[in-house]
Specification:
Layout (H helix, E strand, L loop, with lengths): L10 H11 L2 H7 L6 H13 L6 H23 L10 H8 L4 E6 L5 E6 L5 H5 L2
Helix pairs in contact: 3-4, 4-5
């Protein structure tokens, strides 16, 4: 199925993007990389192999939108609002759960510095990745 610019992503296309995104080497490259055009060009090529024809800009935009929506729902759930939901929340949770969380720490001189913390994971959950 071919889709062009401005077309909505189908459920199958999003699933294909999530399957590529869930690969460990892709997750590692995406985390903390600001200049990630090359990664999304690679993701777009991988999606073409799966029959999804999107350019790297569309892949990056969808990645950013999914990540934003996931974090919005996750924050709502952590605040006690379980009514907020999204279609691929559990898939994204499995992908993003192991990303190091960057926290801003206030320093004595009034500036902020970013520190990374790893979520608590047990050896059994790490081996399934």
């Amino acid at each position: 199925m071919e889709s062009g610019a401005g077309k909505h992503w189908t459920e199958e296309e999003v699933k294909a993007l999530l399957s590529v995104w869930s690969e460990k080497n892709i997750r590692k490259q995406l985390h903390g990389t600001l200049r990630n055009k090359g990664i999304f060009i690679y993701i777009a090529k991988r999606l073409q192999e799966l029959g999804v024809y999107r350019d790297w800009k569309q892949c990056r935009a969808k990645y950013k939108n999914l990540k934003y929506e996931y974090r919005t729902v996750k924050y709502a759930h952590n605040s006690g609002d379980v009514t907020k939901t999204m279609k691929f929340f559990h898939d994204l949770d499995a992908i993003l759960r192991y990303e190091p969380v960057t926290q801003l720490a206030a320093e004595e001189n009034g500036r902020c510095s970013a520190t990374e913390t790893q979520p608590n994971t047990s050896p059994t959950t790490d081996s399934t990745q």
